[in-house]
Amino acid sequence: MNKPDDLENLWKAQPVGTAMRGEEMRGIVLKKIAGFDRAIRRRNRAEMVAALIVSASFGYFAWVQRNGIERLGSIIIAASALWIIYYIWRFGNEPSDPDPDQTVASYRRALARKYEYQIRLLRNVKFWYLLPLYVGLLISSAGLFTEHEKKGSLNWTDAIGPVVYTLIFAGVWWLNEVYTIRRLQRWQIEITSGAEEETQC
Protein backbone atom coordinates (compact mmCIF):
# COMPACT_ATOMS: atom_id res chain seq x y z
CA MET A 1 0.00 0.00 0.00
CA ASN A 2 1.78 3.06 -1.26
CA LYS A 3 1.06 6.62 -0.19
CA PRO A 4 0.00 8.64 -3.26
CA ASP A 5 2.27 11.64 -2.63
CA ASP A 6 3.62 11.65 -6.16
CA LEU A 7 0.07 11.74 -7.51
CA GLU A 8 -0.81 14.78 -5.41
CA ASN A 9 2.45 16.55 -6.30
CA LEU A 10 1.89 16.00 -9.99
CA TRP A 11 -1.69 17.20 -9.67
CA LYS A 12 -0.55 20.49 -8.13
CA ALA A 13 2.45 20.96 -10.43
CA GLN A 14 0.76 20.57 -13.81
CA PRO A 15 -1.14 23.50 -15.34
CA VAL A 16 -4.91 23.01 -15.41
CA GLY A 17 -6.43 21.66 -18.59
CA THR A 18 -3.35 20.27 -20.32
CA ALA A 19 -3.57 16.95 -22.15
CA MET A 20 -0.17 16.02 -20.74
CA ARG A 21 -1.43 16.30 -17.19
CA GLY A 22 -4.49 14.18 -17.93
CA GLU A 23 -2.47 11.37 -19.52
CA GLU A 24 0.20 11.37 -16.83
CA MET A 25 -2.35 11.58 -14.04
CA ARG A 26 -4.32 8.68 -15.49
CA GLY A 27 -1.17 6.58 -15.68
CA ILE A 28 -0.21 7.35 -12.08
CA VAL A 29 -3.70 6.58 -10.74
CA LEU A 30 -3.82 3.31 -12.68
CA LYS A 31 -0.41 2.43 -11.26
CA LYS A 32 -1.71 3.16 -7.76
CA ILE A 33 -4.76 0.96 -8.32
CA ALA A 34 -2.63 -1.92 -9.64
CA GLY A 35 -0.14 -1.57 -6.77
CA PHE A 36 -2.89 -1.49 -4.17
CA ASP A 37 -4.54 -4.57 -5.66
CA ARG A 38 -1.21 -6.43 -5.64
CA ALA A 39 -0.61 -5.51 -1.99
CA ILE A 40 -4.07 -6.77 -1.01
CA ARG A 41 -3.56 -10.03 -2.91
CA ARG A 42 -0.19 -10.59 -1.22
CA ARG A 43 -1.70 -9.87 2.19
CA ASN A 44 -4.62 -12.23 1.55
CA ARG A 45 -2.35 -15.06 0.37
CA ALA A 46 -0.07 -14.66 3.39
CA GLU A 47 -3.01 -14.64 5.80
CA MET A 48 -4.56 -17.71 4.19
CA VAL A 49 -1.30 -19.68 4.26
CA ALA A 50 -0.75 -18.75 7.92
CA ALA A 51 -4.34 -19.74 8.78
CA LEU A 52 -3.89 -23.07 6.97
CA ILE A 53 -0.76 -23.81 9.03
CA VAL A 54 -2.60 -22.87 12.25
CA SER A 55 -5.57 -25.07 11.33
CA ALA A 56 -3.37 -28.07 10.53
CA SER A 57 -1.27 -27.62 13.69
CA PHE A 58 -4.18 -27.30 16.10
CA GLY A 59 -6.07 -30.05 14.30
CA TYR A 60 -3.12 -32.31 15.12
CA PHE A 61 -3.04 -31.05 18.72
CA ALA A 62 -6.75 -31.84 19.08
CA TRP A 63 -6.05 -35.38 17.83
CA VAL A 64 -3.28 -36.14 20.32
CA GLN A 65 -4.52 -34.24 23.39
CA ARG A 66 -6.19 -36.22 26.16
CA ASN A 67 -7.62 -33.32 28.13
CA GLY A 68 -11.14 -32.74 26.81
CA ILE A 69 -11.15 -28.98 27.45
CA GLU A 70 -7.80 -28.51 25.73
CA ARG A 71 -9.02 -30.62 22.82
CA LEU A 72 -12.13 -28.45 22.51
CA GLY A 73 -9.99 -25.32 22.47
CA SER A 74 -7.75 -26.76 19.76
CA ILE A 75 -10.78 -27.75 17.67
CA ILE A 76 -12.18 -24.23 17.96
CA ILE A 77 -8.84 -22.72 16.91
CA ALA A 78 -8.52 -25.08 13.93
CA ALA A 79 -12.09 -24.37 12.83
CA SER A 80 -11.59 -20.63 13.32
CA ALA A 81 -8.54 -20.69 11.07
CA LEU A 82 -10.58 -22.42 8.35
CA TRP A 83 -13.27 -19.77 8.81
CA ILE A 84 -10.64 -17.05 8.34
CA ILE A 85 -9.49 -18.67 5.10
CA TYR A 86 -13.06 -18.71 3.82
CA TYR A 87 -13.75 -15.13 4.92
CA ILE A 88 -10.62 -13.75 3.27
CA TRP A 89 -11.30 -15.74 0.10
CA ARG A 90 -14.90 -14.52 0.02
CA PHE A 91 -14.57 -10.94 1.24
CA GLY A 92 -10.87 -10.03 1.13
CA ASN A 93 -11.11 -8.19 -2.18
CA GLU A 94 -13.57 -5.62 -3.39
CA PRO A 95 -16.00 -7.03 -5.98
CA SER A 96 -15.13 -6.07 -9.53
CA ASP A 97 -16.42 -2.65 -10.58
CA PRO A 98 -17.65 -1.68 -14.03
CA ASP A 99 -14.95 -0.11 -16.16
CA PRO A 100 -14.49 3.58 -15.29
CA ASP A 101 -15.40 6.18 -17.90
CA GLN A 102 -11.69 6.72 -18.64
CA THR A 103 -11.44 10.08 -16.85
CA VAL A 104 -8.85 10.69 -14.16
CA ALA A 105 -11.64 11.52 -11.68
CA SER A 106 -13.34 8.16 -12.27
CA TYR A 107 -10.10 6.27 -11.65
CA ARG A 108 -9.56 8.31 -8.49
CA ARG A 109 -13.04 7.40 -7.28
CA ALA A 110 -12.41 3.73 -8.06
CA LEU A 111 -9.27 3.81 -5.90
CA ALA A 112 -11.16 5.63 -3.12
CA ARG A 113 -13.79 2.84 -3.19
CA LYS A 114 -11.06 0.25 -2.81
CA TYR A 115 -9.75 2.10 0.26
CA GLU A 116 -13.27 2.28 1.72
CA TYR A 117 -13.85 -1.43 1.18
CA GLN A 118 -10.67 -2.34 3.06
CA ILE A 119 -11.58 0.11 5.84
CA ARG A 120 -14.93 -1.65 6.33
CA LEU A 121 -13.20 -5.02 6.32
CA LEU A 122 -10.64 -3.98 8.93
CA ARG A 123 -13.25 -2.38 11.19
CA ASN A 124 -14.69 -5.85 11.78
CA VAL A 125 -11.39 -7.70 12.16
CA LYS A 126 -11.96 -8.18 15.89
CA PHE A 127 -15.12 -10.19 15.16
CA TRP A 128 -14.29 -12.37 12.15
CA TYR A 129 -10.55 -12.79 12.79
CA LEU A 130 -9.45 -12.24 16.39
CA LEU A 131 -12.41 -13.26 18.54
CA PRO A 132 -12.84 -16.87 17.34
CA LEU A 133 -9.12 -17.61 17.74
CA TYR A 134 -8.98 -15.87 21.12
CA VAL A 135 -11.92 -17.87 22.47
CA GLY A 136 -10.24 -21.09 21.38
CA LEU A 137 -7.00 -20.08 23.09
CA LEU A 138 -8.84 -19.19 26.31
CA ILE A 139 -10.59 -22.57 26.38
CA SER A 140 -7.32 -24.36 25.66
CA SER A 141 -5.64 -22.43 28.48
CA ALA A 142 -8.50 -23.34 30.82
CA GLY A 143 -7.92 -27.00 30.00
CA LEU A 144 -4.21 -26.62 30.72
CA PHE A 145 -4.96 -24.93 34.05
CA THR A 146 -7.32 -27.78 34.97
CA GLU A 147 -4.66 -30.34 34.12
CA HIS A 148 -2.03 -28.57 36.20
CA GLU A 149 -4.44 -28.16 39.09
CA LYS A 150 -5.09 -31.91 39.15
CA LYS A 151 -1.36 -32.53 39.28
CA GLY A 152 -0.86 -29.83 41.94
CA SER A 153 1.52 -27.91 39.72
CA LEU A 154 -0.64 -24.87 38.98
CA ASN A 155 1.22 -21.61 39.72
CA TRP A 156 1.56 -18.03 38.51
CA THR A 157 3.74 -18.98 35.56
CA ASP A 158 0.71 -20.59 33.92
CA ALA A 159 -0.68 -17.09 33.41
CA ILE A 160 2.27 -16.07 31.21
CA GLY A 161 0.85 -17.71 28.09
CA PRO A 162 -2.58 -16.02 28.28
CA VAL A 163 -0.97 -12.66 29.05
CA VAL A 164 1.39 -12.97 26.07
CA TYR A 165 -1.24 -13.96 23.51
CA THR A 166 -3.64 -11.34 24.86
CA LEU A 167 -0.99 -8.66 24.29
CA ILE A 168 -0.30 -10.05 20.80
CA PHE A 169 -3.99 -9.99 19.92
CA ALA A 170 -4.31 -6.44 21.27
CA GLY A 171 -1.38 -5.44 19.06
CA VAL A 172 -2.93 -7.04 15.99
CA TRP A 173 -6.21 -5.26 16.74
CA TRP A 174 -4.43 -1.89 17.05
CA LEU A 175 -2.41 -2.45 13.89
CA ASN A 176 -5.55 -3.19 11.86
CA GLU A 177 -8.34 -1.12 13.37
CA VAL A 178 -6.35 1.93 14.40
CA TYR A 179 -3.09 2.35 12.49
CA THR A 180 -4.03 0.87 9.10
CA ILE A 181 -7.54 2.34 9.05
CA ARG A 182 -6.18 5.82 9.80
CA ARG A 183 -3.66 5.48 7.01
CA LEU A 184 -6.31 4.30 4.54
CA GLN A 185 -8.62 7.13 5.56
CA ARG A 186 -5.85 9.64 4.94
CA TRP A 187 -5.21 8.20 1.49
CA GLN A 188 -8.93 8.17 0.78
CA ILE A 189 -9.27 11.86 1.63
CA GLU A 190 -6.30 12.75 -0.58
CA ILE A 191 -7.52 10.78 -3.58
CA THR A 192 -11.14 11.92 -3.17
CA SER A 193 -10.19 15.59 -2.99
CA GLY A 194 -8.24 15.14 -6.21
CA ALA A 195 -11.27 13.57 -7.89
CA GLU A 196 -13.41 16.55 -6.84
CA GLU A 197 -10.87 18.96 -8.30
CA GLU A 198 -10.80 17.01 -11.57
CA THR A 199 -14.59 17.10 -11.80
CA GLN A 200 -14.65 20.85 -11.23
CA CYS A 201 -12.08 21.37 -13.96
Notes on the protein architecture:
- By secondary structure, this protein is mostly helical.
- It has one domain (5-200).
- Helices cover 83% and strands 0% of the residues.
- The protein has 6 helices and no strands.
- The protein starts with a helix and ends with a helix.
What can be said about this structure in brief?
This protein has 201 residues and is an all-alpha fold. It has one domain (5-200). The chain is built from 6 helices and no strands.
Secondary-structure map:
Layout lengths: L4 H9 L5 H46 L3 H24 L12 H20 L1 H27 L8 H41 L1
Helix pairs in contact: 1-2, 2-3, 2-4, 3-5, 4-6, 5-6
Spell out the key features of this protein.
201 residues; mainly alpha; 83% helix
- Describe the sheet with the most strands: none
Strand content: under 5%
Distance between the termini: 28 Å
Structural class: mainly alpha
Mean pLDDT, all residues: 85
Judging from the principal axes of the Cα atoms, what is the shape? Answer: elongated
Give helix % range: over 70%
Number of distinct beta strands: 0
What Rg, in angstroms, do the CA atoms define? 23 Å
Q: How do the helices and strands follow one another from N- to C-terminus? A: HHHHHH
Number of spatially distinct domains: 1
Number of helical segments?
6
**Which blocks of ≥5 consecutive residues have pLDDT under 50?**
6-20
